[in-house]
Write a structure and sequence with these properties.
Its EC number is 7.1.1.-. The protein is an all-alpha fold. It is built from 4 helices and 2 strands.
């Protein structure tokens, strides 16, 4: 048997998988094209979300705090998943695993405290602190006689 035949025989399952995947994608695209709606109207391609029509422009600037909060959510959400996986294997990990998880939680809390202290989680505008200096003025009437 030649090496080419051996490679094809060895990887036949992968080749069948690729052929079926591409064929299924083409079948779904063709089905959507044939069975899809053909109605055209004035408001057909306008965005409509949650029952509210779009107002204004899409070129609106957003604060970076939206992205910061999204990143914090993803980070803490992934860490919560890690703790869930740890809790399912708590009997196998024993006290060593408990200490490791406690250290992990303490590091998370330290990060959360740090974020709160630098104001990364504060949505309110920065408070302006106006320092009012009070000076005492003494009015002495000095008349020389």
């Amino acid at each position: 048997m030649s090496t080419t035949t051996e490679v094809i025989a060895h990887n036949w399952a992968f080749a069948v998988f690729l052929i079926v995947a591409v064929g299924l994608c083409c079948l779904m695209l063709a089905g959507a094209w044939f069975l899809g709606g053909k109605a055209h109207g004035r408001h057909k391609n306008t965005p409509f979300e949650s029952g509210i029509e779009a107002v204004g422009t899409t070129q609106m600037r957003l604060s970076a705090k939206f992205y910061l909060v999204a990143m914090f959510f993803v980070i803490f959400d992934v860490e919560a998943l890690y703790l869930y996986a740890w809790s399912t294997a708590i009997r196998e990990s024993g006290w060593v695993g408990f200490v490791e998880a406690a250290i992990f939680i303490l590091v998370l809390l330290a990060g959360l405290v740090y974020l709160a202290r630098i104001g990364a989680l504060d949505w309110a505008p920065a408070r302006r602190r106006v320092v009012v200096k009070t000076t005492t003025v003494s009015h002495t009437n000095r008349h020389t006689q």
